[in-house]
Known about the structure:
Layout: E1 4-13, E2 31-40, E3 43-49, H1 50-54, E4 61-64, E5 69-72, E6 74-76, H2 88-95, H3 100-105, H4 114-119, H5 122-138, E7 141-147, H6 154-169, E8 174-182, H7 193-208, E9 215-220, H8 227-239, E10 243-248, E11 266-269, H9 275-283, E12 287-290, H10 292-297, H11 306-311, E13 316-318, H12 332-343, H13 347-354, H14 356-361, E14 379-382, H15 389-392, E15 399-404, E16 407-410
Parallel strand pairs: 1-4, 1-5, 6-7, 7-8, 8-9, 9-10, 10-11, 11-12, 12-13
Antiparallel strand pairs: 1-2, 2-3, 5-14, 14-15, 15-16
Amino acid sequence: MTAILLTHASQLLTLRGDTPRRAASMRDLGIVSDGAVLIENGKISAVGSTEGLRKHSKSAEEIDCTNRVVLPGFVDSHTHPVFAHPRLIDFEKRIGGVSYEEIAAAGGGIRSSIRGVRESSPNELAHHVLSALNEMSAHGTTTAEAKSGYGLDLVSEIRSLKAIQNAARDWPGTVVATLLAAHVVPPEHRDHPDEYVRIVCDEMIPAVGGKLAAYVDVFCDRGAFSPEQSLRILGAAVANGLMTRLHIGQLTHTALEVFAEFHPASVDHLDHLTDADIAWLGKTDTVATLLPAANYFLGLSAFPPARKLIDAGAAVALATDYNPGTSPTTSMPFVLSVACTHMKMTPAEAISAATLNSASAVNLQHRKGSLEPGKDADIAIFDVQDYREIPYWFGVNRCWKTFLQGRARAFSTAS
Length: 415
């Protein structure tokens, strides 16, 4: 593979240093003016000034990044790409004033996506996942976590994870697969939810093992799974060698420290938190992943308490929550914009949350999230002169080029 030298970046955001970023360190982006990055064999081999790197990289193919910002590729650490159709009826009902929970109780929401997944072929699902991954990379994402969770029986959950696996083979970025069989109780088990929990624990999780997924996720909330049920599922995950994460606190409050024994990599949503939860997150390695695009799309006035979390020293990450019902977006720059405008994160904090801290949320901080020698050459280049423009320009895509493990993809020539 030919060596590539990116030169003359208006701002090169290295994010070098400690991971995950907390408190004031989230605002330190390690900016190099007139910056350069040398890529060799899919890895970053050197980072510094254009003048300094040029002296040692005379044989590299040079790409001029004048008047552009170069930063680590986004790590989208919470997505649901395995679905068949958009949920347009839910969308119209919400416009008419029907709540998320009312839609779910009437058979909409997550349950309305089950039939489409169960009736789709593996190739159809894989095609949809790959399309989503390609859209993500067009907006600067180079790593994505991808969940199952719309099949909700053994056959369909395995099919969903295989679709993720097959799509990942055709995408040059990195995909982390998660089993979310505990998304909601499917209709056939509505009257016997504990039996469904048994199936998840005794049949689905052992069938997945470490072959098709790295993580098990649970939606612990009203209308989904109780804390007691969630603990059983996480216990089965750990017993089968899988790591854990949680959807929690989106609709109602659940104490977070109850789950500490399972060392979840990430707890996600967190609209409803107490001071005790925030204090615990400030002391733990568990990442607090916030998903403000879902709040935006649901038309909510309240957003997760990002400022309190950051000020308490929690490791805060951002992700799209890409899904057909509550967050149909693949754009991390849009998420950054919502985080800044509605959660009052600074642009620097938002970028740290979407790169280095999101890498920590999927335990890939040793390979992803910053521009440092030895890490994967996962890089996003934006057609802006100042990093603050990335969340500033919303509703447009300013991503000019991405490198996914050293492989270049060009998308636009925004001006």
